[in-house]
Amino acid sequence: MPSNQWKALAQACAEPLIAFAQRLVQTPSLPGHEAEVARLVEQEMHRLDYDAVTVDPAGNVVGLIYGDGGPSLMFNAHMDHVDPGDLSGWPYPPYAGEIVDGVLWGRGAVDMKGALAAMVHAGGLIKRHHLPLPGDLIVAAVVMEEGGGVGTHELLHHIRPALCVVGESSNGAVMRGHRGRTEFLARVVGRSVHASMPELGANPHYPMARFLARLETLPMEADPVFTCASVAPTLYRTDQSSPNVIPGEVRLTLDWRSLPSQCMEHVAAQLEALLRESLEADFHAEVRIVQNRYVTYTGLTVELPASFPAFLLPADHWLVQGAQRTLNQALERLVPVDVWRFATDGGQIAALGIPTIGFGPGDPKVVHTNRECIALTALVDALIGYTALASEMVREAI
Prior knowledge:
single chain; 10 helices; six-stranded mixed beta sheet; alpha+beta; about 400 residues
């Protein structure tokens, strides 16, 4: 289809798209509390005449539009968002959804209710105008991405698309991968005593301090695309709340950003060996991947490791090049190809062998900040892009 026709169709739907995105931003949906946003998404899919709309046990909302029997394509977007933090720092209230000078402000506008709204409306646009759809289109609005990727993890138990587009913000670029993120817990156990008699105890702060000094100079595996892996100590806790007691245990959280080539179990063993080199006879230590327990808004309990896999599609992969060509034509501009700096649900989708790319509106630099906002023109461009990807790109897989 000529690019001016894609634009004309999308611009005719701009008003309801923007209104829907605004309603989503105006509806708080912290991880585990997405029920109201899920209801809005379900209602919108019905209003747009999706062929089927279901809500799974985790609370994911899944809309389906039937295609012509080719490979199925999933659009993946999460409904939750991070905490807005100190409200006084926002130029506009984070849940007001104010539109100022052509920009929608608020928590979740970029991460990622703008993309969610555009994906939902892309399905409606295809259905309303009977646009070509080579394979089934699955639009998945998932829960608790910010809470450990729970929604997509549960979704993949019963839905396995042939291809996937993740809508995390990319400034309109095609994303072909990202580093992974794994949360490790380093733990040192010593012997607690009164702080006035330190010689009778075994203070775990000291071996942990030696470990931190060694960690800072730990060689990191290099990569031509992602530069290198990285590790950052983040949280530090003890088993004491009294300032005059030497703790019996200290716990350190490590944020490890991994390369696609790295095995997290091997990294855990490497870190534990480094920690043990810092110990003396009176101490015990371990490093393990954090395991978290989550409860979705439907009451489903899920236990998952705090680990998002890395992934990377080759630059010459047909999905990367096909998406770029499709978007170049539909948006009438050169769409770059890049990688995300942060982890997404795309890692666990790609880990199942499902070719996955990213394409999303908005600037990643404002994500998780009190300057989160998205241009209305970016929302319309996302609608154009998602509609074109579903209607045209999948043809290359047939």
